[in-house]
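Tutorial handout. Part one gives the primary structure; part two gives the three-dimensional structure as tokens.
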Amino acid sequence: MNGSILSPVWLTVQLASITTVLLLVIGTPVAWWIARSRSRFKPIVEAITALPLVLPPTVLGFYLLYAFNPNAPLGSFFVWITGETLVFSFQGLVAASLIYSLPFMVQPLRVAFEDIDSNLLDATRVLGANSWTRFFLVVVPISYRGFITAAVLTFAHTVGEFGVVLMIGGSIPGETKVLSIAIYEMVVETISNSEAHQLSLGLLVFSFLVLVGVYTLNRKDPLRVS
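Part two.
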């Protein structure tokens, strides 16, 4: 592969890795609250976290473009803090990916947390374990398949993003030109079908292997997505 192909691949891996790690931190408490809460606001939170599953990526990207604009409160705050803009930047891609890939982290974790026997958690509480100890020594080991599934699906979904990243980042080489954008340009603009085939085949194989791995991991307890 030449540099024009390697750069989007490396940028995509960076974006997917950062998004996955950050969503593990953000999505875990959200999934835990959804799984264990009996609040009347629970359906609203569930709907918000699942919204990217049904909302067209271009629609989500359109509103994020407004929110990230330097003249908008969020966009101007980011400029004030960092001196840079969110639109047409790698930071903007990360922020957009956190929102767009959120359900792929939350849904598998929520399913895993819901399957935990409450009596087990009550027993550890009686034995004197605090909340953090119960979570890291009991919940995490029991839910390891949920964590693996969530991380893999989030990474894979971020790799395949197109509409949102195009709206927020455009196509700046080395900054926002990720794999999906590179393939689009090869097919539509430069007519580089050979390179497009290489990248597309790579994504196809990657996606297939991800799904095989996820279904194999969950073969005794099929992944529920809702």
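Part three, for discussion. The CA atoms of residues 1 and 198 lie 9 Å apart. The radius of gyration is 20 Å.
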